[in-house]
Amino acid sequence: MDFAYLSAIIFLPVIGAIVIALLPRADFKVIRVVALIFTLASFALSMVVFCQFDRSSAAIGVMQFEEKHSWIPAINSFYHLGVDGLSLPLVILMTFLGVLSVLVSWKVALRPKLYFAMLLILETSILGVFTALDLILFFLFWEIELIPMYFLISIWGSGRKEYAANKYLIYTLVGSAMMLAGFLSVYFSTGTMNMMELSGLEIARPFIPLSAMFFLLIAGFAIKLPVFPLHTWLPDAHTNAPTAASVILAGALLKMGGYGMIRLCVTMLPGVAVQYAPLMAILAVIGVLYGAGVTLRQTDLKRLIAYSSVSHMGYVLLGIFALTQISVTGAALQMFSHGIITGLLFAMVGLVYEKTHERNLDKLGGLARQMPVIVVVFSIAGLASLGLPGTSGFAAEFITFVGSFTSSIAGMRLYTLLGVLGIVFTAGYILWMLQRTFYGEPKEEYNGVPDADAVEKTCIFLFVFAILLVGIYPAILTNVIKMGVEPIIKLIGM
Amino acid sequence: MMLEQISLIAPELSLLCFALLVVLLDLFVKQKKVIAGVAVFGVIISGGFALNMWGAPTTGIFYNMLSVDKFAVLFKFLFLAAAGLVMLASQDYVSKFPRFQGEFYALVMLATLGMMLMAAAADFIALYVALELSSISLYVLASFLKDKKSTEAGLKYLLLGAVASAVLLYGMALVFGLTGHTCLVCIADAIKAMPISSIMESPILVLGIILLVVGFGFKIASVPFQMWVPDVYEGAPTPVTAYLSVASKAAGFAIILRVFFTVFGAPEWLSQNWGLLLAILSAITMTVGNVVAIVQANIKRMLGYSSIAQAGYLMVGLATVGMAAGADALGRSGLLFFLMSYTVTNLGAFIAIIAISNKINSDMIDDFTGMGKRAPLLATALTLCLVSLTGLPPTAGLIAKVYIFSGAVDHGLLWLVIIAVINSCISAYYYFRVVKVMWMGEPASDEKVPSTWALRTALAICCLAVLVMGVVPAAFVRIAEAAVKILGS
After folding, report:
1. pTM (2 decimals)?
2. Could you tell me where the DSSP H helices lie in A107-232?
3. pLDDT of residue B489
4. Which of A202, A263, B172, B341 is the most buried (most CB within 10 A)?
5. Is A364 domain-assigned?
6. Is it true that the peptide bond before B267 is cis, omega within 30 degrees of 0?
7. What is the pLDDT of residues A311-370, one digit of tens each?
8. How far apart are CA A209 and CA A215, in angstroms?
């Protein structure tokens, strides 16, 4: 049997967590190195998978690096993993963010053992979601994520951390509860839990109306993405979470929602997806515009970035439900791109806050003089977020809009035009935020505030490198993504 | 002939002998640890006999009073495991009643014996006698501390339990009056022989079924027969509470499953009607349990209400069995798997609580603040068990819920499953409140919380089982499937 790459990628972080738990009385310096080693190993393996991934046309729609073992025979459930063009970029995104989130947390000294263990378990669960091909396995990984995130927010968070953690927990649980009901109704309508068999399967004897099934499934994903009006957990969770948790939350966790919609809702129920596409597109546009509008009004730096996620995830939703080859590819690229851009933005906010102990835009100002490196990188991240050509943000948003504009779904042109307006808002709040934080008269209380140190520079330069790489040569990902999207669009037959 | 049959009740007989031995030893032996050792040894021996009978062919013994089948054997093993773990865990607790330790162990063993006979009973008479044996032992155990709360608990349990027994007996009498039999299989045959129209028009049968549901409902603490639970759980010694919440409940489900499936499993019309009745009770039970648990400040009371809610989830399995009307075994095996998972999970939670509250001398949730620092291992174990009760991975709780709900969805109970999963979300709130205070608050003192090795062993077994059943459930699923295959054939 071949080396089980995917299992290794998924479980290396959790093995790291166990190693950390077993270290007797370790100093946090040892713990963070162990965490870094395991996340690096996982990242390295995911790059191996990326290089060995078969990009030939024969491999379109085929799951690669598949692993399948019997798991719970009673309900026909398997330990079944695999990656295709859709999931592979997200796996790489997560392993990449895994390494960076350890670097971001380099100075966490409060209960470091538990902290890094939780971070690593979180990584395992998200990787599991992106690679699982069995509904119950998918659900298992989907739920595991809750526990470390709950602890990360409620122990190492700030402000109303316990409220935010509880809100996050309850929102997600309600969504996943519906999702489980949806999975079970799919299973009893078809007799299989295998996502590959389910894709495009004609459900001849649906157990409940197909549209009910669709909405049960999409509830969990819509909360996670988040889709307006189910987004209210997000600003609280992001604002109060520690920096690394925000990075992973915005970077990879929200993508579980988008991924689930494409992989399960659209693939398993293409007919219903077409039927409700206009509705989802309207919600997407509301999300884009409402999110951007609310973002403009924020005075807390972290909350501002959090609300911008609501707006940017609207593009993903629009791309998915425009249901064309190009728009879904754009949506998938947007998920990756938003992952690294917003990840970087949160890391930068974390840095600014760590140096100045201030997140209120009214009180910040004139920091450009004290922190030249931070201001440059923050600006790059901001410009990428508003879609400056040459950054991944531009590539992703451009492809998404081109795709959705050509969609044959009723009203999609109008929605696209409205969605594009969101970019204008984005330019507004990003530039305004940069100006209010870094420019203007230098303030006395920030004299002598240090710039980023070596570890922080390494971390943020890696982010910038990824943003520019995807921005200048998006085909490095789109070539992979389109292999996963093509068979899905074929199912829709538009 | 008779001798051969005696070898088939070896687990029960050996347990009885050891229980009597424990009482006798208590007269002479000063070292109470020895008595505990003998008691645990007795449970292990009995468990060995039970394991040995897993492969035995299905028969009825003592003129079909008891049946020997995999279903009964699985439950016997479950009760013995629970009893053994509780006895190990009570090493930290028995110092509160130093004089009566022998009686304590003996009563736990006798209660276990009663439950084992309940699981095997194939006749109303045997069933009732076994039920009383276990109940009376438990009444005494509930009031074992002899303080105000414990006495109240015992008295309340006794009075309400006696009423429930009377109601149950009345239900049995009505069914007997209609069919002329007390043996379960004979009653089933008699009902099958009746024309459908006369079943539908027979108020006696309907009343009998309702009274049986009431009587058994008391045992499993389903709403509206749950009134005794919070007070008894709070007042009784914690090990007894642990035992009540798992073994006694499991025994209740064992007899309901056997009686309702065997006796009222056919015709389909009848089966689906009690299935629906139980489905409605299940929805009410889990909702009441979960909602009331939210406001509890005492952790034993909270777990009391949580166990009511868990009974609600278990009743989803029973309702499925009714709706399926014997058509497929998913509901039955799901119920068994859930019971196994619930037993180890709830026991684990209670064992951790015994250790912690014994040291801090309080059962209030607020006093658990900062336990993550004072007792990291106990707090981790309790967290794991609470996560499993919520039904999150990677624990047995998730698999159990998925399993039991999947059967329900298959038999038209999607509405019930949706209520159940929403209830799981509600339950997360109060389970995680305990987790939160343990890990987030600052401890009142830095003093460590000690525990004996016996308790730690018991806790480790529970946690290991919770994890193993959560990650590689296949073996346990096969056991549950094998156990229900025999049932009703």
Report:
1. 0.84
2. 112-131, 135-144, 146-156, 161-190, 195-198, 210-224
3. 43
4. B341
5. yes
6. yes
7. 899 999 999 998 888 899 999 999 999 999 999 999 888 888 888 888 888 888 878 788
8. 10
Cβ separation of A73 and B424 shorter than 8 Å?
Answer: no
Q: Cα separation of B486 and B68, whole Å?
A: 10
d(CA A472, CA A489): 26
Distance from CA of A475 to the nearest CA of B (A): 38
Q: Which two tokens stand for residue B345?
A: 């999970």
DSSP annotation of A391 reads S
The answer to whether residue B127 scores a pLDDT higher than 50 is yes
Q: What is the largest CA-CA distance in chain B?
A: 72
Torsion angle, alpha carbons of B327, B331, B337, B339, to 10:
-130
Mean pLDDT of A26-34: 83
Roughly how many angstroms between the first and final C-alpha of chain A, as a whole number? 40
Question: In which element (H, E) is residue A80 found?
Answer: strand A77-83
Closest residue in B to A73 (Cα–Cα)? B474
Across the interface, whether the CB atoms of B409 and A166 are under 8 A apart is answered no
B277-324 per-position pLDDT tens digit: 899 999 999 999 999 999 999 999 999 999 999 999 999 999 988 888
**Residues A436/A441/A443/A448 CA torsion (nearest 10 deg):** 100
Q: Is residue A207 part of a domain?
A: no
Q: Which residue has the higher pLDDT, A187 or B17?
A: B17
**Cβ distance B455 to B242 under 8 Å?**
no
Give yes or no for a cis peptide into A242 (omega within 30° of 0). no
Three-class SS of residue B117? helix
CA dist A23 and A120 (Å) reads 15
* A64: helix, strand or coil: strand
Contacts of B393 in chain A (CB under 8 A): 140-141, 143-144
Place of tokens 């695999």: A82
| Helical (H) or strand (E) element with A71 | strand A64-72
* A73 in contact with B, Cβ within 8 Å: yes
CA angle A165, A172, B404 (to 5 degrees): 125
Asked if B471 contacts B394 with a C-beta cutoff of 8 angstroms, the reply is: yes
Q: Nearest by CB to B439, which of A140, A155, A207?
A: A155
Domain span holding position A465: 272-494
Q: Is A67 helix (H, G, I), strand (E, B) or coil?
A: strand
Q: Which chain B residues are closer than 8 Å to A147 by Cβ?
A: 387, 392
Number of A–B residue contacts, CB under 8 Å:
91
Q: How far is CA B302 from CA A353, A384, B299, B365, B427, in A?
A: 41, 51, 5, 9, 11
Please determine, for residue A280, whether its predicted confidence score (pLDDT) is greater than 70. yes
Helix A325-356, helix A301-322: angle, nearest 10: 170
What Å distances lie between residue B457 and A326, A399, A406, B332, B460, CA to CA?
59, 60, 65, 31, 5
Instruction: For residue A172, give the chain B residue with the closest CA.
Output: B425
- Evaluate whether residue A226 is within a structural domain: no
Residue B487 banded pLDDT, cuts 50, 70, 90? low
The CB density around residue B372, as the number of other CB atoms within 10 Å, is: 23
DSSP assignments along B144-181, one per residue:
TT-SHHHHHHHHHHHHHHHHHHHHHHHHHHHHHHHHS-
Q: What are phi and psi of B447, to 5 degrees?
A: -60, 135
When mean pLDDT is compared over A366-370, B260-264, B396-400, the highest value belongs to B396-400
**Within a domain: A416:** yes
Indicate the pLDDT class of residue B172, thresholds 50, 70 and 90.
very high
Total count of domains within chain A: 1
Q: Which amino acid is at B142?
A: A
**Interchain contact, A74 vs B330, CB within 8 Å:** yes
CA distance B107 to B86: 12
- Under a CB-based contact definition with an 8 Å cutoff, are residues B149 and B234 in contact? yes
What one-character-per-residue DSSP string does B60-87 give?
EETTTTEEESHHHHHHHHHHHHHHHHHH
AA identity, residue A63: M
